Amino acid sequence: MMVTSAFSCTASAVLGGCGLLLICLWSVIFDNFMTLRNNSLIYRYWKSEPLDIHADFYFFNWTNPEDFYDLSVKPKFEEVGPYSFLQKIEKTNITWNDNDTVTFQQKKFWIFQKQKGGVHLKDPIVTLNPIPLITSYLLRDWNYYTRRVISMTLSTFFGEHHMTQTVESLLFKGYYEPLMKIAAATPMLSQYDLPNWEGFGYFYDRNGTYEFEGTLNMGIGKNADFGYIHFWNYQNKSRYFDDACGDVRGSAEYYFPKNLKKNILKYFMPDMAGSTNLTFEKEESVSSILGYKYVIGEKTLDNGTNYPENRCLCSGECVPSGTINMTRLRHSLPVFVSLPHFYKADPYYINLVDGLEPNKSKHDFYVIVEPTTGIPLKGNMALQANLLVQPVSGLTMFENAPKFFCPIWWACYSFEVQGFLVLLVTLLVNLHFKFPTKILGFNMADASACIIKCFSFSSMYVADDSLLVTGVREEPGSGSLECVLQRSLEAAM
Protein backbone atom coordinates (compact mmCIF):
# COMPACT_ATOMS: atom_id res chain seq x y z
CA MET A 1 0.00 0.00 0.00
CA MET A 2 2.83 2.36 0.92
CA VAL A 3 4.61 1.55 -2.35
CA THR A 4 1.46 2.33 -4.34
CA SER A 5 0.97 5.57 -2.43
CA ALA A 6 4.57 6.58 -2.99
CA PHE A 7 4.27 5.80 -6.70
CA SER A 8 1.09 7.88 -6.96
CA CYS A 9 2.74 10.81 -5.22
CA THR A 10 5.77 10.55 -7.50
CA ALA A 11 3.60 10.36 -10.61
CA SER A 12 1.54 13.34 -9.47
CA ALA A 13 4.70 15.31 -8.76
CA VAL A 14 6.11 14.52 -12.20
CA LEU A 15 2.88 15.45 -13.95
CA GLY A 16 2.59 18.56 -11.81
CA GLY A 17 6.09 19.54 -12.84
CA CYS A 18 5.11 19.03 -16.45
CA GLY A 19 2.18 21.34 -15.87
CA LEU A 20 4.41 24.11 -14.50
CA LEU A 21 6.71 23.73 -17.50
CA LEU A 22 3.75 23.89 -19.89
CA ILE A 23 2.62 27.17 -18.33
CA CYS A 24 5.88 28.73 -19.47
CA LEU A 25 6.03 26.99 -22.83
CA TRP A 26 2.36 26.94 -23.79
CA SER A 27 2.43 29.66 -26.45
CA VAL A 28 5.53 28.06 -27.97
CA ILE A 29 3.80 24.67 -28.12
CA PHE A 30 0.67 26.13 -29.70
CA ASP A 31 2.60 28.18 -32.28
CA ASN A 32 4.69 25.12 -33.13
CA PHE A 33 1.53 23.08 -33.66
CA MET A 34 0.18 25.76 -36.03
CA THR A 35 3.38 26.02 -38.11
CA LEU A 36 3.44 24.57 -41.62
CA ARG A 37 6.10 21.89 -42.04
CA ASN A 38 6.50 18.86 -44.24
CA ASN A 39 4.53 15.94 -42.72
CA SER A 40 2.96 18.09 -40.00
CA LEU A 41 -0.76 17.89 -39.26
CA ILE A 42 -1.44 21.32 -40.72
CA TYR A 43 0.63 20.47 -43.83
CA ARG A 44 -1.74 17.65 -44.79
CA TYR A 45 -4.66 20.04 -44.36
CA TRP A 46 -2.91 22.65 -46.54
CA LYS A 47 -1.61 20.43 -49.38
CA SER A 48 -4.97 18.89 -50.31
CA GLU A 49 -7.76 21.25 -49.31
CA PRO A 50 -10.19 19.24 -47.09
CA LEU A 51 -12.98 21.80 -47.32
CA ASP A 52 -15.88 21.03 -49.64
CA ILE A 53 -15.84 24.18 -51.76
CA HIS A 54 -19.03 24.60 -53.74
CA ALA A 55 -18.76 26.75 -56.87
CA ASP A 56 -22.14 27.90 -58.14
CA PHE A 57 -22.24 29.73 -61.48
CA TYR A 58 -25.15 31.88 -62.62
CA PHE A 59 -25.53 33.26 -66.15
CA PHE A 60 -27.49 36.28 -67.35
CA ASN A 61 -29.63 35.34 -70.33
CA TRP A 62 -30.11 38.36 -72.60
CA THR A 63 -33.81 38.44 -73.46
CA ASN A 64 -33.97 41.43 -75.86
CA PRO A 65 -30.75 41.58 -77.93
CA GLU A 66 -32.78 42.67 -80.96
CA ASP A 67 -33.27 46.06 -79.23
CA PHE A 68 -29.52 46.67 -78.94
CA TYR A 69 -29.53 49.81 -81.08
CA ASP A 70 -32.76 51.22 -79.66
CA LEU A 71 -31.44 53.62 -77.03
CA SER A 72 -34.90 54.01 -75.53
CA VAL A 73 -34.96 50.34 -74.45
CA LYS A 74 -32.72 49.01 -71.70
CA PRO A 75 -30.97 45.66 -72.16
CA LYS A 76 -32.95 43.09 -70.17
CA PHE A 77 -31.55 40.00 -68.47
CA GLU A 78 -32.82 37.03 -66.52
CA GLU A 79 -30.65 34.96 -64.21
CA VAL A 80 -30.20 31.26 -65.00
CA GLY A 81 -28.64 28.76 -62.60
CA PRO A 82 -27.03 27.72 -60.40
CA TYR A 83 -24.68 25.44 -62.30
CA SER A 84 -23.02 23.72 -59.37
CA PHE A 85 -19.46 22.43 -59.25
CA LEU A 86 -17.34 20.97 -56.49
CA GLN A 87 -13.94 22.64 -56.47
CA LYS A 88 -10.82 20.78 -55.37
CA ILE A 89 -7.44 22.46 -54.83
CA GLU A 90 -4.12 20.65 -54.92
CA LYS A 91 -0.71 22.20 -54.15
CA THR A 92 2.13 21.17 -56.48
CA ASN A 93 5.81 21.99 -57.06
CA ILE A 94 6.31 22.73 -53.36
CA THR A 95 9.65 24.27 -52.33
CA TRP A 96 10.64 25.02 -48.73
CA ASN A 97 12.73 28.18 -48.37
CA ASP A 98 15.28 29.23 -45.73
CA ASN A 99 13.35 32.40 -44.86
CA ASP A 100 10.41 30.46 -43.35
CA THR A 101 8.31 30.65 -46.50
CA VAL A 102 7.11 28.05 -48.97
CA THR A 103 6.83 28.48 -52.74
CA PHE A 104 4.20 26.49 -54.62
CA GLN A 105 1.70 26.30 -57.44
CA GLN A 106 -1.86 25.08 -57.15
CA LYS A 107 -4.16 23.20 -59.44
CA LYS A 108 -7.88 23.80 -59.30
CA PHE A 109 -10.42 21.24 -60.41
CA TRP A 110 -14.11 21.96 -61.04
CA ILE A 111 -16.32 18.85 -60.91
CA PHE A 112 -19.86 19.35 -62.17
CA GLN A 113 -22.65 18.20 -59.86
CA LYS A 114 -25.03 16.80 -62.47
CA GLN A 115 -28.44 18.37 -62.87
CA LYS A 116 -28.54 19.92 -59.43
CA GLY A 117 -31.47 22.33 -59.47
CA GLY A 118 -32.76 21.05 -62.83
CA VAL A 119 -30.10 22.75 -64.96
CA HIS A 120 -27.57 21.21 -67.34
CA LEU A 121 -24.31 22.26 -68.97
CA LYS A 122 -25.99 21.97 -72.38
CA ASP A 123 -28.43 24.78 -71.54
CA PRO A 124 -28.26 27.56 -74.19
CA ILE A 125 -27.46 31.10 -73.06
CA VAL A 126 -27.99 34.25 -75.13
CA THR A 127 -25.14 36.58 -74.27
CA LEU A 128 -22.88 39.33 -75.58
CA ASN A 129 -20.38 38.27 -78.26
CA PRO A 130 -17.01 39.01 -76.59
CA ILE A 131 -14.67 38.78 -79.62
CA PRO A 132 -16.02 41.79 -81.57
CA LEU A 133 -16.11 43.60 -78.22
CA ILE A 134 -12.39 42.95 -77.64
CA THR A 135 -11.69 44.29 -81.13
CA SER A 136 -13.70 47.44 -80.52
CA TYR A 137 -11.94 48.03 -77.21
CA LEU A 138 -8.45 47.56 -78.68
CA LEU A 139 -9.18 49.83 -81.66
CA ARG A 140 -11.11 52.56 -79.85
CA ASP A 141 -8.13 54.97 -79.84
CA TRP A 142 -6.80 54.09 -83.29
CA ASN A 143 -7.16 56.29 -86.36
CA TYR A 144 -10.76 56.45 -87.59
CA TYR A 145 -9.94 55.28 -91.11
CA THR A 146 -7.88 52.37 -89.76
CA ARG A 147 -10.86 51.33 -87.68
CA ARG A 148 -13.13 51.57 -90.71
CA VAL A 149 -10.85 49.36 -92.85
CA ILE A 150 -10.48 46.74 -90.12
CA SER A 151 -14.23 46.76 -89.53
CA MET A 152 -14.90 46.06 -93.21
CA THR A 153 -12.18 43.39 -93.37
CA LEU A 154 -13.31 41.45 -90.33
CA SER A 155 -17.06 41.90 -90.69
CA THR A 156 -17.47 38.37 -92.07
CA PHE A 157 -15.78 36.95 -88.95
CA PHE A 158 -17.58 39.09 -86.38
CA GLY A 159 -21.07 37.67 -86.68
CA GLU A 160 -23.53 39.61 -84.52
CA HIS A 161 -23.20 41.59 -81.30
CA HIS A 162 -24.87 38.71 -79.45
CA MET A 163 -24.55 34.93 -79.65
CA THR A 164 -26.04 31.73 -78.22
CA GLN A 165 -23.68 29.26 -76.57
CA THR A 166 -24.05 26.44 -74.07
CA VAL A 167 -23.00 26.88 -70.47
CA GLU A 168 -20.14 24.39 -70.84
CA SER A 169 -18.83 26.30 -73.87
CA LEU A 170 -18.94 29.60 -72.02
CA LEU A 171 -17.10 28.12 -69.04
CA PHE A 172 -14.39 25.47 -69.39
CA LYS A 173 -14.88 23.74 -72.74
CA GLY A 174 -14.82 26.84 -74.90
CA TYR A 175 -16.17 27.28 -78.43
CA TYR A 176 -14.27 27.55 -81.71
CA GLU A 177 -13.34 31.14 -82.53
CA PRO A 178 -11.04 31.70 -85.57
CA LEU A 179 -10.40 35.35 -84.68
CA MET A 180 -8.46 34.28 -81.58
CA LYS A 181 -5.67 32.78 -83.69
CA ILE A 182 -5.77 35.63 -86.20
CA ALA A 183 -5.50 38.30 -83.50
CA ALA A 184 -2.66 36.53 -81.67
CA ALA A 185 -0.66 36.31 -84.93
CA THR A 186 -1.22 39.95 -85.97
CA PRO A 187 1.95 42.06 -85.37
CA MET A 188 -0.07 45.24 -84.81
CA LEU A 189 -1.75 43.58 -81.81
CA SER A 190 1.34 42.01 -80.24
CA GLN A 191 1.48 44.64 -77.48
CA TYR A 192 -1.83 43.41 -76.05
CA ASP A 193 -0.66 39.96 -74.89
CA LEU A 194 -3.53 38.13 -76.59
CA PRO A 195 -3.77 34.37 -75.92
CA ASN A 196 -2.98 31.95 -78.73
CA TRP A 197 -6.18 29.96 -78.25
CA GLU A 198 -8.24 28.12 -80.82
CA GLY A 199 -11.39 28.81 -78.88
CA PHE A 200 -12.82 31.06 -76.22
CA GLY A 201 -14.37 30.45 -72.81
CA TYR A 202 -14.31 32.46 -69.61
CA PHE A 203 -12.52 29.59 -67.82
CA TYR A 204 -10.96 28.11 -70.93
CA ASP A 205 -7.89 25.94 -70.27
CA ARG A 206 -8.12 26.39 -66.49
CA ASN A 207 -9.69 23.17 -65.21
CA GLY A 208 -6.90 21.02 -63.76
CA THR A 209 -4.08 23.42 -64.63
CA TYR A 210 -2.03 25.85 -62.58
CA GLU A 211 -0.77 28.35 -65.18
CA PHE A 212 -3.42 30.97 -64.48
CA GLU A 213 -2.92 30.82 -60.70
CA GLY A 214 0.79 31.51 -61.06
CA THR A 215 3.50 30.76 -58.50
CA LEU A 216 2.82 31.79 -54.90
CA ASN A 217 5.17 32.35 -51.98
CA MET A 218 3.68 32.42 -48.47
CA GLY A 219 4.73 32.34 -44.83
CA ILE A 220 4.72 29.02 -42.97
CA GLY A 221 3.75 30.51 -39.59
CA LYS A 222 7.14 30.50 -37.86
CA ASN A 223 8.83 33.86 -38.34
CA ALA A 224 6.45 34.74 -41.17
CA ASP A 225 2.67 34.72 -40.76
CA PHE A 226 1.07 31.49 -41.92
CA GLY A 227 -0.81 32.03 -45.16
CA TYR A 228 0.58 35.52 -45.81
CA ILE A 229 1.49 35.96 -49.49
CA HIS A 230 4.86 37.64 -50.09
CA PHE A 231 5.40 37.02 -53.82
CA TRP A 232 3.24 36.17 -56.82
CA ASN A 233 5.11 34.91 -59.88
CA TYR A 234 8.33 35.84 -58.03
CA GLN A 235 7.32 39.50 -57.82
CA ASN A 236 6.02 41.58 -54.91
CA LYS A 237 4.16 43.86 -57.33
CA SER A 238 1.40 42.99 -59.76
CA ARG A 239 1.91 44.39 -63.26
CA TYR A 240 -1.83 44.83 -63.70
CA PHE A 241 -2.29 47.72 -61.27
CA ASP A 242 -0.26 50.83 -60.51
CA ASP A 243 1.26 52.12 -57.27
CA ALA A 244 0.01 50.61 -54.00
CA CYS A 245 -2.88 48.86 -55.75
CA GLY A 246 -0.34 46.51 -57.32
CA ASP A 247 1.23 45.41 -54.03
CA VAL A 248 1.26 41.65 -53.52
CA ARG A 249 0.28 41.14 -49.91
CA GLY A 250 -2.42 39.61 -47.78
CA SER A 251 -3.70 36.17 -46.87
CA ALA A 252 -3.85 33.32 -49.35
CA GLU A 253 -7.15 31.69 -50.28
CA TYR A 254 -8.67 29.88 -47.28
CA TYR A 255 -5.62 30.51 -45.04
CA PHE A 256 -5.36 33.38 -42.60
CA PRO A 257 -2.91 34.54 -39.90
CA LYS A 258 -3.41 33.66 -36.24
CA ASN A 259 -4.72 36.11 -33.65
CA LEU A 260 -6.89 38.23 -35.95
CA LYS A 261 -8.11 41.68 -34.97
CA LYS A 262 -11.47 43.32 -35.49
CA ASN A 263 -10.31 45.63 -38.27
CA ILE A 264 -9.05 45.09 -41.84
CA LEU A 265 -8.09 41.69 -43.22
CA LYS A 266 -5.99 41.75 -46.39
CA TYR A 267 -6.82 38.97 -48.81
CA PHE A 268 -4.80 38.17 -51.94
CA MET A 269 -6.78 36.86 -54.92
CA PRO A 270 -4.87 35.49 -57.96
CA ASP A 271 -8.11 35.75 -59.97
CA MET A 272 -8.00 39.52 -59.47
CA ALA A 273 -4.19 39.82 -59.58
CA GLY A 274 -4.14 41.87 -56.42
CA SER A 275 -5.06 42.30 -52.79
CA THR A 276 -8.53 42.97 -51.46
CA ASN A 277 -9.43 44.53 -48.13
CA LEU A 278 -12.03 42.67 -46.10
CA THR A 279 -13.63 44.70 -43.31
CA PHE A 280 -14.66 43.28 -39.94
CA GLU A 281 -18.46 43.31 -39.67
CA LYS A 282 -19.41 41.31 -36.57
CA GLU A 283 -18.86 38.20 -34.49
CA GLU A 284 -20.74 35.13 -35.72
CA SER A 285 -20.75 31.50 -34.57
CA VAL A 286 -20.47 28.53 -36.91
CA SER A 287 -21.11 25.05 -35.42
CA SER A 288 -20.81 26.64 -31.95
CA ILE A 289 -17.36 28.05 -32.79
CA LEU A 290 -17.02 31.82 -32.42
CA GLY A 291 -15.70 33.53 -35.55
CA TYR A 292 -15.04 36.98 -36.95
CA LYS A 293 -17.00 37.89 -40.07
CA TYR A 294 -15.17 39.96 -42.69
CA VAL A 295 -16.89 41.40 -45.76
CA ILE A 296 -16.06 43.31 -48.92
CA GLY A 297 -17.08 46.86 -48.09
CA GLU A 298 -17.95 49.75 -50.36
CA LYS A 299 -14.42 51.16 -50.06
CA THR A 300 -12.92 47.93 -51.42
CA LEU A 301 -14.88 48.32 -54.67
CA ASP A 302 -14.23 52.03 -55.01
CA ASN A 303 -11.82 53.17 -57.71
CA GLY A 304 -11.13 56.68 -56.47
CA THR A 305 -14.62 58.10 -56.90
CA ASN A 306 -15.25 58.28 -53.15
CA TYR A 307 -11.81 57.35 -51.75
CA PRO A 308 -8.91 59.10 -53.57
CA GLU A 309 -6.37 56.55 -52.30
CA ASN A 310 -8.10 53.93 -54.48
CA ARG A 311 -7.60 55.83 -57.72
CA CYS A 312 -4.86 53.39 -58.77
CA LEU A 313 -7.63 50.79 -59.23
CA CYS A 314 -8.97 52.69 -62.24
CA SER A 315 -6.41 51.02 -64.50
CA GLY A 316 -7.51 53.24 -67.37
CA GLU A 317 -10.94 54.83 -67.55
CA CYS A 318 -12.40 55.68 -64.14
CA VAL A 319 -16.03 54.72 -63.73
CA PRO A 320 -18.47 55.11 -60.83
CA SER A 321 -17.75 53.24 -57.61
CA GLY A 322 -18.62 49.56 -57.43
CA THR A 323 -16.54 47.87 -60.14
CA ILE A 324 -12.85 47.05 -60.61
CA ASN A 325 -11.34 47.25 -64.10
CA MET A 326 -9.71 43.88 -64.88
CA THR A 327 -9.06 44.52 -68.59
CA ARG A 328 -5.27 44.21 -68.33
CA LEU A 329 -5.56 40.82 -66.66
CA ARG A 330 -8.19 39.45 -69.07
CA HIS A 331 -6.28 39.75 -72.35
CA SER A 332 -7.79 43.17 -73.20
CA LEU A 333 -11.37 41.94 -72.77
CA PRO A 334 -13.03 44.92 -70.98
CA VAL A 335 -14.04 43.00 -67.85
CA PHE A 336 -15.22 44.92 -64.80
CA VAL A 337 -15.69 42.91 -61.62
CA SER A 338 -18.43 43.73 -59.12
CA LEU A 339 -20.50 42.03 -56.50
CA PRO A 340 -23.46 40.08 -57.98
CA HIS A 341 -26.31 42.19 -59.35
CA PHE A 342 -24.16 45.29 -58.68
CA TYR A 343 -24.72 44.93 -54.94
CA LYS A 344 -23.03 47.81 -53.03
CA ALA A 345 -22.27 49.56 -56.35
CA ASP A 346 -23.28 53.04 -57.47
CA PRO A 347 -26.93 53.01 -58.74
CA TYR A 348 -25.50 54.13 -62.10
CA TYR A 349 -24.85 50.51 -63.11
CA ILE A 350 -28.18 48.91 -62.29
CA ASN A 351 -30.08 51.84 -63.81
CA LEU A 352 -28.61 51.02 -67.23
CA VAL A 353 -30.16 47.52 -67.40
CA ASP A 354 -33.31 45.65 -66.39
CA GLY A 355 -33.70 42.36 -64.51
CA LEU A 356 -31.14 42.66 -61.71
CA GLU A 357 -32.12 42.57 -58.03
CA PRO A 358 -29.31 43.00 -55.45
CA ASN A 359 -29.75 40.95 -52.28
CA LYS A 360 -27.44 41.08 -49.24
CA SER A 361 -28.01 37.52 -48.03
CA LYS A 362 -27.23 36.05 -51.46
CA HIS A 363 -24.84 38.50 -53.09
CA ASP A 364 -22.48 39.53 -50.29
CA PHE A 365 -18.82 38.49 -50.22
CA TYR A 366 -17.78 37.37 -46.75
CA VAL A 367 -15.62 34.94 -44.84
CA ILE A 368 -15.96 33.91 -41.18
CA VAL A 369 -12.64 33.05 -39.54
CA GLU A 370 -11.82 31.58 -36.13
CA PRO A 371 -9.59 34.43 -34.86
CA THR A 372 -7.14 32.48 -32.69
CA THR A 373 -6.08 29.87 -35.24
CA GLY A 374 -6.94 31.76 -38.45
CA ILE A 375 -8.90 28.75 -39.72
CA PRO A 376 -11.86 29.74 -41.97
CA LEU A 377 -15.22 28.47 -40.73
CA LYS A 378 -17.58 29.63 -43.46
CA GLY A 379 -17.43 31.62 -46.64
CA ASN A 380 -19.61 33.09 -49.36
CA MET A 381 -17.22 34.52 -51.94
CA ALA A 382 -19.39 35.99 -54.67
CA LEU A 383 -18.22 38.07 -57.63
CA GLN A 384 -19.70 39.06 -60.99
CA ALA A 385 -18.09 39.56 -64.41
CA ASN A 386 -19.39 42.45 -66.52
CA LEU A 387 -18.32 43.58 -70.00
CA LEU A 388 -18.16 47.27 -70.88
CA VAL A 389 -20.12 48.10 -74.04
CA GLN A 390 -19.62 51.56 -75.52
CA PRO A 391 -19.98 53.28 -78.90
CA VAL A 392 -16.86 53.28 -81.11
CA SER A 393 -17.01 55.29 -84.34
CA GLY A 394 -15.68 53.58 -87.43
CA LEU A 395 -16.70 50.11 -86.24
CA THR A 396 -20.06 49.28 -87.78
CA MET A 397 -21.21 46.96 -85.02
CA PHE A 398 -20.62 49.48 -82.21
CA GLU A 399 -21.02 52.90 -83.85
CA ASN A 400 -24.55 53.31 -82.50
CA ALA A 401 -24.26 51.07 -79.46
CA PRO A 402 -25.43 52.21 -76.03
CA LYS A 403 -22.96 52.46 -73.16
CA PHE A 404 -23.64 49.98 -70.37
CA PHE A 405 -21.96 47.31 -68.29
CA CYS A 406 -23.32 44.01 -69.53
CA PRO A 407 -23.64 41.37 -66.78
CA ILE A 408 -22.33 38.04 -68.11
CA TRP A 409 -22.14 35.66 -65.13
CA TRP A 410 -21.51 35.58 -61.44
CA ALA A 411 -20.03 32.86 -59.26
CA CYS A 412 -20.25 32.06 -55.58
CA TYR A 413 -17.62 29.93 -53.88
CA SER A 414 -19.09 28.76 -50.59
CA PHE A 415 -17.92 26.44 -47.83
CA GLU A 416 -18.58 25.59 -44.19
CA VAL A 417 -16.52 23.46 -41.82
CA GLN A 418 -18.12 20.11 -41.02
CA GLY A 419 -17.37 16.80 -39.33
CA PHE A 420 -13.78 16.26 -38.27
CA LEU A 421 -12.81 19.85 -39.14
CA VAL A 422 -15.28 21.15 -36.55
CA LEU A 423 -13.70 18.85 -33.97
CA LEU A 424 -10.19 19.86 -35.01
CA VAL A 425 -10.87 23.60 -34.74
CA THR A 426 -12.71 23.16 -31.44
CA LEU A 427 -9.81 21.12 -30.10
CA LEU A 428 -7.23 23.72 -31.14
CA VAL A 429 -9.21 26.56 -29.58
CA ASN A 430 -9.61 24.61 -26.34
CA LEU A 431 -5.92 23.75 -26.36
CA HIS A 432 -5.13 27.44 -26.59
CA PHE A 433 -7.58 28.81 -24.03
CA LYS A 434 -8.69 26.08 -21.61
CA PHE A 435 -5.61 23.98 -20.98
CA PRO A 436 -3.59 26.81 -19.41
CA THR A 437 -6.55 27.52 -17.14
CA LYS A 438 -6.71 23.87 -16.09
CA ILE A 439 -3.00 23.83 -15.42
CA LEU A 440 -3.36 26.81 -13.10
CA GLY A 441 -6.20 25.05 -11.25
CA PHE A 442 -5.90 22.86 -8.19
CA ASN A 443 -5.69 19.57 -10.10
CA MET A 444 -2.53 20.33 -12.07
CA ALA A 445 -1.55 16.67 -12.39
CA ASP A 446 -4.87 15.75 -14.00
CA ALA A 447 -4.63 18.72 -16.37
CA SER A 448 -1.14 17.71 -17.43
CA ALA A 449 -2.30 14.15 -18.03
CA CYS A 450 -5.07 15.50 -20.25
CA ILE A 451 -2.54 17.48 -22.29
CA ILE A 452 -0.28 14.49 -22.75
CA LYS A 453 -3.24 12.27 -23.63
CA CYS A 454 -4.62 14.82 -26.08
CA PHE A 455 -1.33 15.26 -27.92
CA SER A 456 -0.89 11.50 -28.00
CA PHE A 457 -4.30 11.01 -29.60
CA SER A 458 -3.67 13.73 -32.19
CA SER A 459 -0.04 13.11 -33.08
CA MET A 460 -0.42 9.36 -33.63
CA TYR A 461 -2.59 10.11 -36.68
CA VAL A 462 -0.46 12.80 -38.34
CA ALA A 463 1.33 10.28 -40.57
CA ASP A 464 -1.88 8.98 -42.16
CA ASP A 465 -2.64 10.99 -45.32
CA SER A 466 -6.12 9.55 -45.81
CA LEU A 467 -7.39 10.88 -42.51
CA LEU A 468 -6.99 14.52 -43.44
CA VAL A 469 -8.20 14.14 -46.99
CA THR A 470 -11.26 11.98 -46.34
CA GLY A 471 -11.71 12.34 -42.58
CA VAL A 472 -11.81 8.58 -41.90
CA ARG A 473 -9.57 5.55 -42.07
CA GLU A 474 -10.31 2.76 -44.49
CA GLU A 475 -11.34 0.53 -41.59
CA PRO A 476 -14.30 1.89 -39.59
CA GLY A 477 -14.54 2.18 -35.85
CA SER A 478 -12.89 3.99 -33.00
CA GLY A 479 -9.70 4.58 -34.98
CA SER A 480 -11.18 7.25 -37.26
CA LEU A 481 -9.82 10.75 -36.95
CA GLU A 482 -13.23 12.01 -35.95
CA CYS A 483 -13.33 9.62 -32.98
CA VAL A 484 -9.77 10.50 -32.02
CA LEU A 485 -10.48 14.23 -32.08
CA GLN A 486 -13.68 13.72 -30.13
CA ARG A 487 -11.78 11.87 -27.38
CA SER A 488 -9.07 14.53 -27.44
CA LEU A 489 -11.69 17.25 -27.13
CA GLU A 490 -13.31 15.49 -24.18
CA ALA A 491 -9.90 15.34 -22.55
CA ALA A 492 -9.39 19.04 -23.17
CA MET A 493 -12.72 19.94 -21.64
Automatic annotation (TrEMBL):
Cell location: Cell membrane
Signal peptide: none
CC annotations in GO: cytoplasm; plasma membrane
Membrane-spanning intervals of the chain: 408-429
Main location: membrane
One Pfam entry name: CD36
Stretches assigned to coiled coil: none
GO molecular function: scavenger receptor activity
Keywords: Cell membrane, Glycoprotein, Membrane, Transmembrane, Transmembrane helix
Entry annotated with the keyword Acetylation: no
Record bears the keyword Transmembrane helix: yes
Protein family according to the UniProt entry: Belongs to the CD36 family.
The protein's name in its UniProt record: Protein croquemort
Lineage: Eukaryota, Metazoa, Ecdysozoa, Arthropoda, Hexapoda
